[in-house]
Amino acid sequence: MFVFGDLLISIATILDYILGLYKWVVIIAALISWVNPDPYNPIVRFLYAVTEPVFRPIRRLIGHRLGPIDISPIVVILVIIFLQSFLVRTAIKIGQQFGGG
Where are the transmembrane segments (predicted)? Predict the structure, then answer.
């Protein structure tokens, strides 16, 4: 069963890296939105393409804006932190129980 444990730990570690990277993408997208960026810039288009599908349902759920501040990036970051601290760490502990690591 150690193979399953190692596989679960590896998947959890990769998920942790992906979530960490996406957290930085969300932070950068939020910072760039403050400066009125050029919408035709490829970096701005990429950031918009990868964050807007996640922001849109949150904006619908809590309202588009809370005053002049868009809090959807904050909600996304909090969800990512929760997933990293609960889901990933739980998967690693389960993988260790199966003899992985």
Answer: 7-35, 71-92
Rounded to whole angstroms, how far apart are CA atoms 56 and 63?
Answer: 10
Strand partners, 69: 66
Residues near 81 by Cβ (< 8 Å), separated by ≥ 6? 23
Percent of the chain with pLDDT over 70: 95
Q: Please give the model's pTM, rounded to 2 decimal places.
A: 0.87
What backbone phi and psi angles, to 5 degrees, belong to 66?
-105, 90
- In the chain, the number of structural domains is 1
Give me the pLDDT at residue 34, please: 87
CA dist., res. 41 & res. 25, Å (int): 16
